[in-house]
Each structure stands twice: as structure tokens, then as C-alpha cells.
Design a protein that fits this description.
Blueprint: E1 2-6, H1 11-22, E2 26-31, H2 34-41, E3 46-49, H3 59-62, E4 67-70, H4 85-105, E5 110-114, H5 140-160, E6 163-169, E7 171-173, H6 181-190, E8 195-197, E9 204-205, E10 207-209, H7 210-222, E11 227-231, E12 237-238, H8 239-250, E13 257-259, H9 277-282, H10 290-300
Parallel strand pairs: 1-2, 1-4, 2-3, 4-5, 5-6, 6-11, 7-10, 8-13
Antiparallel strand pairs: 9-12
Helix pairs in contact: 1-7, 4-5, 6-8, 8-10
């Protein structure tokens, strides 16, 4: 297939493009710096200039493409700064709408959008695609812009006859990831440093390895599916569980894990795990266990 990918030089985008090329697909990368992207992605990937935050529609670049995977996003320097709300909306909502409309104009068959599984209202169970999306607790300006982008893109694609799929991944980790929970803990433990976990290490998140996300995205492109799909492991892991597992895999002493007890204030319990039954059914999805995913991550360090 001929597939265009935005965010192709990002963490997930890089893994996705390499997988698509290895699978024999013809990939066009829509990126801000085509020359640097060409050096990073290799000669088999066509690189075209594109900036999500600008109003220009990349219609001509999309002509001939059968599918577009939209993995680009504006990530604010501070998720708590309301002054960055407009920038989030301009790129992640209005920029996504512009891209979706360009897909319609270019007669692209399929549009696959990366959204976020962290936008669900927290519950005491795994959340499904039919549960409430209400990102008022944390990262509100960013997550609200991603949700708005979902709505805009789905509407534009529906009106224009383009099949649309929304992927809602949970917390992604994997090789070559610069920041985040797993890389931070792993680097410190591997260096013989101590890690400090607040609130008893109770903060929980559904960790999904990047290879699983790539397989889900590829299935969303190549199968006749539509609508939203959760992409996670199906279970939430606490920071303490992750730290203990990494310490064991790295041969580090568990004494390096310092657990601070919860104080008098309510603790941040993190995010609900994602119910991935729909992906299991439609995308032939098979999430990697936390233990196996962390082992692969450690081996790639």
C-alpha cells in the first residue's frame, strides 16, 4: 500500500515507518524537516515538508496515498500551563481537521488517527471505548485538544467518505524512547542509582510496548475497520511494580528502590487500564505482558 505518515520522526512514528517499510509498503513521511528525516528514515521513505501547527493543507502530498496515519501531535512544554491551551488546540484539533479535510480532497481511502487512552474519566475498572471521555483531572489542555481532534477528524471523514479509525493508546514505552516512566527508572537502576517513589509507589498506568501499538496501527490501515480502538495491555501497573520488575531484570538491588509513604493529601492513583476487547476481536491484537515487554526494553538498552 501507499501510506502517508505524519510524526514519522517521533518515537512511535519512527517505529511505525520502519515496520511499514519492512512490510513492503510505500511510505511518505510528512515532516517539518524533510532533509533530516531522510537521513533518519533512509532512502526508501519519501519525505515531504509538513507542519501540523500551520494552516496549509498537504493535499498535493497526499494524492495517490491509499491511507494516512496521523501520529504527529503538539506536546506542550508544560501540561499544566493554560497559556499553552491555544497552541494545543491549533495543532492537535484544528491541524488534525485540516489534515482530515486534505485526505477527503485527495481521495485518500483511510485515515488512522492516534489519540490518547488517558483521556477517559478514571474508574475502578478497565475502561472501554464506550466509557466517558472527560480529561479534566490532568493534562487537560493537551488531552482535550486530542479529543477535539478526534471529533473533528471523524466528522470530516464521515462527511467526505473516508474510512476513519481512532487509536487510543495508553502509556507507550519501548526502545529508543527518551523520557517517561520506564526509561527513567531503568537508566537510574542500571547506573546503580536509587529511585524514589512517592505515595507508596501506588501511581498506576497501563503500559503498552511500542511494537504492540505499531501492529495495531498496521491492522487499522490494512483491515476494513472503523471507529475507536483502545490499545493497551489491559491491566494497570503501579510504579512500584515496574521498579521491582526492572530491578530484577537489570540485576539491581531492590534496596535502590526508596518508597515514600503516602501523606495526608489524596494520592494520585494514575489512569484506568484500557479494555482492549474490541482490538482483540477486530485487529487480531495480542498485547505483550509487562514482564516480556520490560525484558525486551532492557535487552535493547
Amino acid at each position: 500500500m501507499k501510506i502517508a505518515v505524519t510524526g514519522a520522526t517521533g518515537f512511535v512514528g519512527t517505529h511505525l515507518v520502519r515496520s511499514l517499510v519492512a512490510g513492503g509498503h510505500e511510505v511518505t513521511a510528512l515532516v517539518r524537516n524533510p532533509r533530516a528525516a531522510a537521513d533518519a528514515l533512509g532512502p526508501r521513505v519519501r519525505c515531504v515538508g509538513y507542519d501540523l501547527a500551520k494552516a496549509d493543507a498537504p493535499t498535493e502530498a497526499l494524492r495517490g496515498a491509499e491511507a494516512v496515519v496521523h501520529a504527529a501531535a503538539y506536546l506542550p512544554a508544560s501540561y499544566a500551563d493554560p497559556e499553552l491551551a491555544r497552541a494545543c488546540l491549533d495543532a492537535n484539533a484544528l491541524g488534525t481537521l485540516t489534515l482530515a479535510r486534505a485526505c477527503v480532497a485527495a481521495a485518500v481511502s483511510s485515515f488512522v488517527l492516534f489519540s490518547s487512552g488517558n483521556a477517559y474519566r478514571r474508574t475502578g475498572r478497565a475502561v472501554s471505548e464506550d466509557d466517558a471521555l472527560y480529561p479534566a483531572a490532568r493534562a487537560t489542555y493537551y488531552l482535550a485538544s486530542k479529543l477535539c481532534g478526534e471529533l473533528y477528524a471523524t466528522h470530516a471523514c464521515d462527511q467526505g467518505g473516508v474510512r476513519s479509525v481512532v487509536l487510543r493508546p495508553s502509556a507507550i514505552y519501548g526502545a529508543r524512547m527518551a523520557g517517561g516512566l520506564v526509561p527513567t527508572l531503568a537508566r537510574k537502576l542500571a547506573a546503580g542509582e536509587s529511585v524514589t517513589l512517592r505515595d507508596g509507589g501506588a501511581y498506576a498506568v497501563d503500559l503498552v510496548c511500542v511494537e504492540d501499538v505499531v501492529r495495531a496501527a498496521t491492522a487499522a490501515v490494512t483491515r476494513e475497520v472503523r471507529g475507536p480502538y483502545n490499545v493497551g495491555s489491559g491491566a494497570a501497573s503501579t510504579t512500584l511494580e515496574v521498579a521491582v520488575a526492572l530491578a530484577e531484570l537489570l540485576g539491581a538491588s531492590e534496596g535502590r528502590i526508596v518508597v515514600e509513604p503516602a501523606g495526608s493529601l489524596p494520592i494520585d492513583e494514575g489512569f484506568s487500564p484500557l479494555d482492549v476487547a474490541r482490538a482483540l476481536r477486530d485487529l487480531d491484537y495480542a498485547p505483550t505482558s509487562l514482564r516480556d515487554g520490560l525484558r525486551a526494553y532492557v535487552e535493547a538498552m
